[in-house]
Write a structure and sequence with these properties.
Elements (H helix, E strand, L loop, with lengths): L4 H7 L4 H8 L3 H10 L8 E5 L5 H9 L4 E6 L2 H10 L4 E6 L12 E7 L7 H14 E12 L4 H17 L16 H10 L4 E8 L2 E7 L1
Parallel strand pairs: 1-2, 1-4, 2-3, 4-5
Antiparallel strand pairs: 5-7, 6-7
Helix pairs in contact: 3-4, 6-8
Bound molecules: S-adenosylmethionine (SAM).
Length: 216
């Protein structure tokens, strides 16, 4: 049965960090790698899309404890856990969808997102990335670590399967349901360029999980 995105993560909070770090291939490397790509200047402003319980922030605060973080997530339980872990850090948490929340203009030195954006279409992502690009300062950049499929056939398969499941379960609303529909890396890069990022490069990968850097 499909579950609404926030319900899915609320229900799995217990054991979430353990699952991500131990069951996701490459996680013990890609969290620190992602954190190392973020700015290390004091008091810099970083936006985290789908921050969850803050696994990437745990690594980042070790490198830059003075960073000012704005974290957005649909799940209150995940955000509460993040706030508990990092009570002594400069963090602003916003509960809601990054598709709906205004991100502002020229505010952030960099943005990051880890394992959150593999549920959305290229068109949905292009609109989000355009808004995200606007929120970055000049020369600001976005570090995306997420997993991807290796072919257009797989990409289409997952999207069609989600549509079938929604039809079977009588779901007609436009809410987000938890079902992985990753794009190919090629389509992800196209979405970032379509949104106006000037350079987009793959920095690393661990099997299906890639880190991509997109500069404003
Ligand atoms: C697999 S977790 C990743 C969390 C964290 N970045 C990490 O790597 O541990 C995905 C997170 O994205 C959040 N999420 C999914 N869709 C979202 C949306 N549209 N807006 C805000 N958060 C979203 C979920 O609530 C969940 O906490």
């Amino acid at each position: 049965m499909l579950e609404k995105m926030s319900d899915f993560f609320e229900a799995r909070l217990s054991g979430y960090d353990n699952h991500m770090l131990n069951d996701i291939e490459g996680a013990k490397e890609f969290y620190p790698f992602t954190a190392r790509q973020l700015p290390i200047n004091e008091n810099c402003s970083i936006l985290d899309l789908g921050c969850g319980t803050g696994l990437e922030l745990h690594e980042y605060f070790a490198l830059n404890p003075s960073a000012k973080i704005t974290g957005i997530d649909l799940s209150k339980a995940m955000l509460d856990e993040l706030a508990r872990k990092f009570a002594d850090r400069d963090i602003t948490l916003i509960k809601g969808s990054y598709f709906d929340i205004p991100l502002g203009y020229n505010i952030f030195d960099a943005a990051v997102s880890v394992e959150s954006l593999h549920h959305f279409t290229k068109e949905e992502k292009t609109a989000l990335y355009s808004k995200l690009r606007d929120s970055l300062k000049e020369n600001g950049y976005f570090i995306l670590t997420d997993y991807f499929v290796s072919s257009d056939v797989d990409e289409r398969f997952h999207r069609e399967r989600l549509c079938e499941l929604k039809a079977e379960q009588g779901i007609t609303d436009n809410e987000f349901y938890h079902y992985d529909t990753p794009l190919t890396v090629e389509h992800e890069i196209e979405a970032l360029f379509d949104a106006g990022f000037t350079t987009v490069e793959v920095l690393n990968n661990w099997n299906a999980t890639y880190t991509i850097k997109a500069v404003k």
